[in-house]
Amino acid sequence: MIHHVEGTLVAVRPGKAILELGGLGLEILITEGTASRLGPAGLRVHLLTHLVVREDAWVLFGFEEEEERALFRLLLGVQGVGPRLALAILSALEPERLRSAVAEGDLAALTGVTGVGKKTAQRVIVDLRDKVGLVPSGDAVPGAGTPVGATKPPADDVVDALVALGYSRGQARDAVDVARGAATAEASTEEVLREALRRL
């Protein structure tokens, strides 16, 4: 799993952001709200992520806060709700609005989302009514567009990023161990990843 990504914002397009990370351009699907709040191109941003692996593609979904990602993952557990529909729901209903819609059984709010029919809305309400309250609200994490302090990143984060790019976990871990040994204590995740890629 890739917990988060930090990189330079290249562009924001409808429903997606392009981040440059270690010489690679990552396409990350995001909500409309996140897209509207991202800064100008060239800004270094931090996004929490959820990776969906399909036969034909690996797709990254990005979120500003843990609350949003947690709700996305809860939605994925509802029958008939796939990743893109879950993202569409969060684009139409901000986390607090989604919580209240589920708690109040507000079918109109949910069926107002393109792609959500009455049966799906009912399943969302029934399946999540007892769960949305367990998700912390406004959990503070570095948000989209937030400058990230330069600290030496955990090896596992960089290893996961390399595995997502197609390398074996053994190859990735060996490369990261060497890269971290060569990196300074102030090296960013991007710098360690770039150094590891040079050694693969």
In DSSP terms (H or I, runs of 4 or more residues), the helix count works out at 9
Percent range of helical residues: 40-55%
- Could you say what the CATH topology of the largest domain is called? DNA polymerase, domain 1
- Total beta strand runs: 5
The largest β sheet comes out as: 5 strands, mixed, barrel
Describe the structure.
It contains nine helices and five strands. With 200 residues, it is α+β, with helices and mostly antiparallel strands. The chain has a five-stranded mixed β-barrel. Helix 7 (155-164) packs across helix 8 (169-182), helix 7 packs across helix 9 and helix 8 crosses helix 9. It has three domains: 1-64, OB fold (Dihydrolipoamide Acetyltransferase, E2P) (Beta Barrel), CATH 2.40.50.140; 66-134, DNA polymerase, domain 1, CATH 1.10.150.20; 149-200, Helicase, Ruva Protein, domain 3, CATH 1.10.8. The longest helix is centred in the C-terminal third of the chain and has 14 residues, at 169-182.
Topology readout:
Elements: E1 4-13, E2 16-21, E3 24-29, H1 32-37, E4 44-53, E5 58-63, H2 66-76, H3 83-92, H4 95-104, H5 107-111, H6 118-128, H7 155-164, H8 169-182, H9 189-198
Parallel strand pairs: 3-5
Antiparallel strand pairs: 1-2, 1-4, 2-3, 4-5
